[in-house]
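Please predict the structure of the following assembly.
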Amino acid sequence: MSDPTRPGRPTQQTAPNDPETVRPGEGAAPASAAPASSLAGGLVCPIPLSEYPTVQLAHGGGGRLSQKLIEGMFVPAFDNPTLAALGDGAVLALEELAGAGGLAGSRLALSTDSFVVRPLFFPGGDIGSLAVHGTVNDVAMCGARPFAISAGFILEEGFSMEELWRVVSSMRQAAADAGVPVVTGDTKVVDRGKGDGVYINTTGLGLVPAGVDVAPHRARPGDVVVINGPIAEHGIAIMSVREGLEFDTAVETDSAALHRLVADLLETLGPAVHALRDPTRGGLASALNEIAGQAGVGVRLDERSLPIAEQVRGACEILGFDPLYVANEGKCLAIVDRERAGEAVEVMARHPEGRGATVVGEVVGEHAGRVVLRSGIGGERVVDMLSGEQLPRIC
Amino acid sequence: MCLGVPGQIVDIEEDSIGMPMGKVSFGGVTKRVCFAYTPDAQVGDYVVVHVGFAISQIDEAEAHQVYDFLKEMGELEELDVTQPAEALGDRRDRGGGGV
Amino acid sequence: MKYVDEYRDEAAARAVVDAIRRLVRRPWTLMEICGGQTHTVIKSGIDRLLPEEVILVHGPGCPVCVTPLELIDRAVEIARRPEVIFTSFGDMLRVPGSASDLLAVKSEGGDVRMVYSPLDAVTLAERHPERHVVFFAVGFETTAPANAMAVWKAHQLGLENFSILSSHVLVPPAMEAILSAPDNRVQGFLAAGHVCAVMGYWEYEPISARYRLPITVTGFEPLDLLQGTYMTLRALEENRWGVENQYKRAVTREGNRPAQDLLGKVFEVCDRPWRGIGVIPGSGLALKPELAAFDAARRFPATGPPPEEPAECIAGEILRGLKKPHECSAFGGRCTPERPLGAPMVSSEGACAAYHRYGRTL
């Protein structure tokens, strides 16, 4: 299917080992006498590591070194003509993006998110892929089809160039797989000790097709809450490599781009989809509390219906975490008309990110603004917003 | 006091000062645990783990006593106690199984 | 998960609740004295499933909550030292001292690190001979053996850059303090299962006899708590006292001998202040004199006068089960998990935090 998210270029699926994906810059090719180092993925870091093994303040200064970094690393990685034009900003043709239906009735969706995750690399992902997926998803949750993202980097002086390349490569792959190009960006470098390696901000744009209206306030009593798969994987994957807590697990982050799944859901169910939310920080509990508060409705969950992998459960048990509050990065909550709930699950399940899609709860008229859980033994408790951060407990 | 979680011992060996250490599996997730306080526990046994220490070995026979207790209360006709493992399996497979 | 799921079985839980309903002829007040049990009760909604006549109150079962304010301030002071790596269990990090807390010290640049096991703190000391590692050794008898082993290992390794800030508390003296108070309403106790896994339950027999009340050693899963409640109520209805063991799969009368032995080598019993309650004689553990080199309180003496508690906080009455959290004038308003006035609101095991989080406002 033609992809309206890529301005003017057919979707290009490049293999990770394809040497064609990394060209030594379209403008000033860095004059490197020393060979660039190679990485496990087969891709070669285009900035000569023997010359610049770490990020320098000048790489963010706007001068020659800045240019080398941008044209040597970022432009070839993200590989699209808009970025390569290197204007102060990206200029995109809206009619092209709207496609056959035209712009009438469309609305623009804009979302921004900053990524400061530690550690930078974790099972199944890293800050780079997270930065792409996170913003693509936020745009998708507005009911929009994402067509472009920007990427702002705040690098710490002394940050490993090789690690930066790993992050950028990962973003490249994520953007290419999602079919959403990185069309503009910015790089700043702060003094050693004033940053945390790398922070990334991504801002995404998308078009909401005419007739699509998803918003929290549309949730109403009788609706069903559907999720595309098991919970708490991202948070646990991060915890498993965090210093002081390390444990062995096969749990990987669920970080994924959900825009195609969402687009399918909206196309198939139309106005029966009332609200969408991705339960990231604060987990399912916080996301549902927000919706309940914004819509003035109650939400009821059933502990027996919560999808969770055995290993994730085990990890939550030993750390003393409640999976309802653990972050997800590839999950989408859809609040849909009761009659179409089964269909919603089926549509989600058609996608790899929707394996394990299931109903988790319902919207009710009682206890407006609160989420209530029926426990596994038939008791009840209120599921509140997360306050502060969940800390592993000894008791 | 205190978060003690039951897990199954995967391996045991002595560290540099002769303390028995090893891995315990909690539903597939494994964590390094000290077995100094459960010297008789073997690989395959279940232990209760608290802050990285096995503090008690689970007595598997006693673990089933909850069913004896229910029989005592005369409610047992409703549960299939002769095959408790299967009954549990049925309940676990229904809904919320996860990937 | 084995040995977990079986004790969360709904049909079995309902059967026990029904049995309790049929059993109870008059109101009874029971106390559980373990943060983990408080947590399970509220999280699975057991308190709402039990008939009205059964009143479950929560005792001072949260070692984080009962750590004296003075000790928190001490910890904060020590953590600020540049040569110190301050290590702690997660739940201690947010407990408010009189002016600051460990998380705040971390954000100001202090080297404060969370560890899962006390042995991890010893490993840090081994890896960083140029720094001094302090471990905030908090806990009841369940955690004391782990903390003891950390000191023991450091001792075996001849480490000179490791010490603990000890905040150990013992359950039986606390139970006595509650039961001997003139306004005591508790008629039966659920004893903390993992404390008993370590110490056994023979210590509770004289308490049960002296106060003529039943004590049931109870586990932590919903079914454990329901069964423990049932057994205690049955004893009350039959006018019996004594100690019974619900948590047989993990607890024996003698307890864990190797753990008790090491506790005896590393610690000795001492008097200890409990935040919100005051000094309870013989209720704490201090390092033995021959291991004084590992005592952070000795190595880093206190500076400044002892702090004062916020007047509005009624933690003492909460911890003794005399009031419920929502009966405090500050609950949910001036005192919330985000801005706690006292410890039971900060630690997720504290009764106030549990009530607030799980919406118990009535």
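Chain C touches chain B through 55 residues (CB under 8 Å). The first strand of chain C starts at residue 28 and ends at 32.
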